[in-house]
């Protein structure tokens, strides 16, 4: 089971299960044992490509407390909310979503997680939101578009620190439904290399998703 520490205790985002854990704290003034409660949210890998990758065994996703994350393809904010839990109050998640319908849910979720900045805009045109996004430590992308590698590259060149991490969810059918998934994945990895992204790890997402893989890479100064 995968969980994240809930930034908004008592609140669920998509009906996910919540688990409260009591921890021993400092003694109370009357000498009785002090108890603090921490709430965790179950992260469903069937509803999150990132969770599926973590449970599948990814060694590194670069998302950690205090990190600044650019999340492309935020949808209604299901996975974004867990990323917000991970980076915590000292981190920031810039969540980009093109659909206004999904964007309404994303904005609503962000009212309870002030470290999320929802951006309802097209990730193909990062200059449109350049005034809203600072330099980031990591980009996560799940945009399911044929030109996904180009979209990731455009955003990386503008916002990602050199040496920063990139995590890309690739859906084979969205890129080329006529080719074998393995061939599609190999072509996309080469496209990422062309965008100065050095692949470090590749993982298929079965049994959680069919014909999907996640590629983890690092942004470098020159193509490698």
Structure description:
The protein has one domain (44-219): Rossmann fold (3-Layer(aba) Sandwich), CATH 3.40.50.150. 26% of the residues lie in helices and 31% in strands. It has 6 helices and 10 strands, in the order βββαβαβαββαβααββ. Strands 6-5-4-7-8-10-9 form a 7-stranded mixed sheet, sandwiched between helices. The radius of gyration is 18 Å and the shape is globular. The model has no long low-confidence stretch (mean pLDDT 92). It comes from Hyaloscypha bicolor E.
Classify the oligomer: single chain
Distance between the termini: 36 Å
Which structural class do the helices and strands define?
alpha/beta
Task: Tell me the number of structural domains.
Answer: 1
Primary descriptors:
Rossmann fold, 26% helix, 224 residues, histone H2AQ104 methyltransferase activity, 3-stranded antiparallel beta sheet, 7-stranded mixed beta sheet, alpha/beta
